[in-house]
């Protein structure tokens, strides 16, 4: 059974950078779509980025486009989220999630939270001076 574990959350100053990771306990992520979601206090969980291991297609929310980069390490079954130029409004618990896909799947729009059936416990990212 797939399990996801996030790590790397921390306190960062505005304008700083942070990389968080999502490690999957599975032999291969070749047929998975993996997403990063975040939830700030009092707000709904929102999709930040997602990437399909089938073809590398990816999506970024407008609020993070140009600042965040999602990447994968297939050998480690790990997905990273590099976050640069961080802002206080990026403060949230960041969750990793995944769902199985067909070999022909590609990301062509926003990460639909309803598609994701396996979730990690989250890692706290705080952007503050």
* Largest beta-sheet details: 7 strands, mixed
Structural class comes to mainly beta
The number of distinct β-strands equals 11
Number of helices, where a helix is a run of at least 4 consecutive DSSP H or I residues: 0
- Pick out the low-confidence regions: none
End-to-end CA span: 40 Å
Helix content: under 10%
Structure description:
The chain has 129 residues and is an all-beta fold. 0% of the residues lie in helices and 46% in strands. The chain has no helices and eleven strands. The strands form two sheets. Strands 2, 4, 5, 6, 9, 10 and 11 form a seven-stranded mixed sheet that branches. It is globular, with a radius of gyration of 14 Å. The mean pLDDT is 95.
């Amino acid at each position: 059974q797939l399990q996801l574990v996030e790590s790397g959350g921390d306190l960062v100053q505005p304008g700083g950078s942070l990389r968080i990771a999502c490690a999957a306990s599975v032999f291969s992520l070749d047929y998975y779509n993996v997403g990063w979601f975040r939830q700030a206090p009092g707000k709904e969980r929102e999709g930040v980025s997602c990437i399909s291991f089938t073809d590398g297609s990816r999506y970024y929310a407008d609020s993070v486009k140009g600042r965040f980069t999602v990447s994968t390490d297939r050998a480690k079954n790990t997905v990273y989220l590099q976050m640069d130029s961080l802002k206080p409004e990026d403060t949230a618990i960041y969750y990793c999630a995944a769902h199985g896909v067909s070999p022909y799947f590609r990301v062509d729009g926003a990460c639909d939270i309803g598609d994701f059936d396996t979730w990690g416990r989250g890692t706290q990212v705080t952007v503050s001076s």
